[in-house]
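Support request, please re-run this one:
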Amino acid sequence: TPGYIKPASIAWYASHKHTADGANEYYSYSYLFAYPIDLPAGATSVTLPNDESIRVMAVTVADEPAVATPAAPLHDVLGRK
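Re-run finished. Output below.
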């Protein structure tokens, strides 16, 4: 199976997850990704896509851009062209 790297900012990471009965699934990694959405001035609402594969865990509104800049790439590129 070819490797796959999701080129998105990781907001949260876990090294395991739990099954429906509460057992640990070790080395079954889980990720939550952060996606900034620039809104036009005066916007009072956001309409998200009606897509069952999208799960929104949280939304935060800020009146200023993020100021953290990574010193190195935060994800691999698998060396593909």
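DSSP finds no helices and two strands in the chain. The longest strand covers residues 24-34.
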